[in-house]
Amino acid sequence: MSGEDEIARLQAAIEELKRRLPRHSVRPAMLIELEELEEQLARAREAHRNAQADGGS
Fold it and tell me: Could you tell me the residue ranges of all domains in the chain?
């Protein structure tokens, strides 16, 4: 999977999870999942930027 594909997949997963979050009484597991996805997205974006800077795709 390319860096752009991974970024898009993670963004979609984050948006889907945010749609499922209840307005009140959010389960801790959902917040943990959201935090993990956001961390993965940040790492994927950084890796993609580094690959582009190195002349990769």
Answer: 3-53
The answer to whether residue 20 scores a pLDDT higher than 90 is yes
Please measure the distance between the N-terminal and C-terminal CA atoms of the chain and give it in whole angstroms. Answer: 11
Three-state secondary structure of the chain: CCHHHHHHHHHHHHHHHHHHCCCCCCCHHHHHHHHHHHHHHHHHHHHHHHHHHCCCC
Please state, for a pLDDT cut of 90, what percent of the chain lies above it: 81
Answer whether residue 28 shows pLDDT above 70: yes
